[in-house]
Amino acid sequence: MTTQQNAKRRERHSGPKRHPFGDRSTTRFLRTLPTFRVVHELPDHLDELLKRLEEAERDGNGGS
Q1: pLDDT, position 32
Q2: Residue 40 to residues 12, 52, 56, 60: CA-CA distances in angstroms?
Q3: Rounded distance, CA 52 to CA 62, Å?
């Protein structure tokens, strides 16, 4: 490789970094993922944990 080619490569890689979410390949990948669905009914054990967490937050004692 010539010095000029090396300089062009360095310039290309040292420029401002683009955000990966703006990249077309990332966008295509995200479109292939399944749609996110909200679950309205939690299993009993998770519902109980959530209630305990909310209560601890309300009390302000961190659950201890």
Answers
A1: 92
A2: 49, 18, 22, 27
A3: 10
Specify the pLDDT at position 44: 93
Residue for token digits 């998770």? Answer: 46
DSSP string of the chain, one letter each residue: --HHHHHHHHHHHHSPPPPGGGSHHHHHHHHHSPPP---SS--HHHHHHHHHHHHHHHHTSTT-
Residues 6+ apart with CB under 8 A from 27: 21
Structure tokens at 25: 């390949």
Per the structure block, which two tokens stand in for 34? 């399944």
